[in-house]
Specification:
This protein is of the alpha/beta class. The chain is built from three helices and five strands, in the order βββαβαβα. Helix 2 links the parallel strand 4 and strand 5.
Amino acid sequence: MKTKMGLWVDHRKAIIFAVTNEGEEIKLIISKVEKQLRRSGDSPLKGRYESLKVPSSDIRQKTFTAHLNIYYDAVIACIRNAGALLIFGPGEAKGELIKRLKIHNLGSRIVGVETVDKMTDHQIAAKVRKYFPK
């Protein structure tokens, strides 16, 4: 039997549920990505923002993208041996990861993509079991 995996993913974490001949396994990958840096201390009502407290927008975006690349590489390393892959989760992370999987020639293993909200580990496991019945 090929390894069948379900992947719930967003920008903060990925939960991988694998069904193999030996049984079931669940993995958690935490991202160290921060979407927005906060300005501390100043406000438009109290005074001017200091440009040195928060990096410019393009530097923040490059840093964000670099952290996402590291995160997605870790996820891809965990799902590389999947024979069939169901990807689900909220937001944009699914699409971004699918693009990277296609670059790594793993796009043909994707059997389904669904948009779902936050889920517990038990809900993720139940969804994958239902999608890949024995």
